[in-house]
């Protein structure tokens, strides 16, 4: 997946419909599909894109690309808080 900008996917419990990241991913897929219906030149997101946006894309958006991952080549990030 290539983005011109660093793009991530997140959720906000105070302003969103749900605090669930899975719901945010589901909504991103639905919106992307609806955009494709109106503009066939737009490639809709697939599940791999949604997982990337929710993990590595979000880490890149907040400049945490170098954070150690749990598994090599995994899309899940390990954070120390």
Assembly state of the chains shown: single chain
Total tally of structural domains: 1
- Indicate the overall shape: globular
The number of helical elements comes to 2
Strand tally is 0
Derived from helix and strand composition plus strand pairing, the structural class reads: mainly alpha
The proportion of residues in beta strands is under 5%
The CA-CA distance between the termini, in Å, is: 29 Å
Q: Give the proportion of residues in helices.
A: 40-55%
The overall average pLDDT, rounded, is 79
Question: What's the story with the biggest beta sheet?
Answer: none
Whole-angstrom Rg: 14 Å
SSE pattern, N- to C-terminal: HH
Low-pLDDT sequence parts: none
Architecture overview:
By secondary structure, the chain is an all-alpha fold. It has one domain (18-81). It contains two helices and no strands. It has helices at residues 21-38, 47-61. The chain is globular and about 40 Å long. The relative contact order is 0.18.
Features:
81 residues, mainly alpha, 41% helix, globular
Architecture blueprint of SSEs:
Blueprint: H1 21-38, H2 47-61
In short:
It contains two helices and no strands. The protein is mostly helical and 81 residues long.
